[in-house]
Prior knowledge:
single chain; Alpha-Beta Plaits
Amino acid sequence: xxxIVVLLTSLTLVSGISWFxxxxxxxxxxxxxxxxxxxxxxxxxxxxxxxxxxxxxxxxLKMVSGIKYAAVNFATSKGEFLYDPSKITKQQIIEKIKExxxxxxxxxxxxxxxx
Length: 115
């Protein structure tokens, strides 16, 4: 009887751990299958003073629904984003960067490096 209780407890723990680690991957796969084509956006970002600023922008935008990939480079003052246009627009991505206190622009002419 004691062996059965230990076995059932072990199975329950293993199932819970497996669900925790592998259900997230399944959700991401389903999300990628639901969405159509991803678009790439390159943005000029000014106002960053260090690599920490770039990391903060990157981490914040990675959590935004519709953005699948975010990379911000402090040295080049550029951000690269892969996003689902059915969930978020280019302008919304730029506005999100501006909400964080930085200036963002798609076209190079209106961009002025302020760091």
